[in-house]
Automatic annotation (TrEMBL):
Database matches in PANTHER family: PROTEIN SUR7 (PTHR36414:SF1)
The species this protein was found in: Penicillium nalgiovense
Signal peptide boundaries: none
Biased composition range(s): Polar residues: 231-240
GO terms classed as biological process: cortical actin cytoskeleton organization; endocytosis; fungal-type cell wall organization; septin cytoskeleton organization
GO CC, alphabetical: cell cortex; membrane raft; plasma membrane
Region (Disordered): 213-250
Database matches in Pfam families: SUR7 (PF06687)
Keywords in alphabetical order: Membrane, Transmembrane, Transmembrane helix
Name this protein carries in UniProt: Actin cortical patch SUR7/pH-response regulator PalI
TM segment ranges: 6-28, 115-141, 147-168, 189-211
């Protein structure tokens, strides 16, 4: 049994809404010390031997947070906060900082590009969400929503790949330096799940548009066949009438 355009459109809308929620949770992690935002971070590392650093540091989009009772203990926020331990933006020292972070802009640039890519992808995701309300009803809106969600998915995947690369490398650098480090499970789960949701949303929107096109073409063919049958029956009746008149004259 096939799915209707309304069903596909609504399901695509649901997955897009879920992805937007997960992205917002990741984006706002570290902004406030309230649940659940105080549980979301990218990387946690033991930094007690670094001068001026917290005993345990957690990196978010907005700041470096300490840890209190297993939750983020964040202070002042800075938009697009970079992951660059030796710089003045983080610890402002190279003492006991892993050598992989010193003398390179690799971690700084990769973490900096995450934020704008995420914002661009989130913008197109929200646009796709609103056009998705019309995708339930119209075929064109389904294709438009699919296109917007595809753009959102592209930027979302770029952001998630950058996040994975930079913080996995950072974890390895801290662990190699004898400083225990681990990834933030929630942030990574949210971002990768959001990517999957956007992929499914894009697929469902496009399928909804295709179903609408199929139904339209079928309806057109049916009307065409009915018209053809009507005129064919008229022609047959006319031929039979002519034959009957000819036989009467004979």
């Amino acid at each position: 049994m096939g799915f209707s355009r309304a069903t596909l459109g609504f399901t695509g809308l649901f997955f897009m809404a879920a992805s937007i929620l997960l992205i917002f949770l990741t984006l706002l992690g570290g902004v406030r010390n309230s649940n659940p935002l105080n549980q979301i971070y990218f990387l946690q590392a033991d930094t007690g031997n670094i001068p001026g650093a917290p005993t345990t540091s957690r990196w978010t989009f907005w700041n470096i947070c300490g840890v209190a009772n297993g939750r983020n203990d964040c202070g002042e926020t800075h938009v697009n906060f970079p992951f660059d331990p030796p710089s003045h933006r983080n610890f402002d020292t190279t003492q006991n900082v892993p050598q992989e972070f010193i003398g390179t802009k690799h971690y700084f640039l990769m973490s900096r590009f995450m934020f704008p890519f995420l914002i661009i992808g989130l913008f197109f995701a929200v646009c796709s969400f609103f056009t998705g309300m019309l995708a339930i009803c119209t075929r064109i809106a389904g294709y438009l929503s699919g296109f917007l969600s595809w753009i959102a998915l592209t930027f979302q995947v770029i952001t998630t790949c950058l996040m994975t690369a930079v913080f996995v490398q950072g974890r390895h650098a801290f662990n190699s330096n004898g400083q225990n480090a681990s990834l933030g499970v929630k942030a990574f789960a949210f971002m990768w799940t959001a990517s999957v949701c956007q992929f499914l949303s894009c697929l469902l929107y496009c399928l909804g548009g295709a179903v609408g096109r199929k139904d339209t073409s079928s309806g057109y063919s049916g009307r065409k066949e009915r018209r053809r049958g009507f005129f064919s029956s008229q022609r047959s009746n006319s031929v039979r009438s002519q034959k009957k008149e000819t036989n009467n004259y004979a």
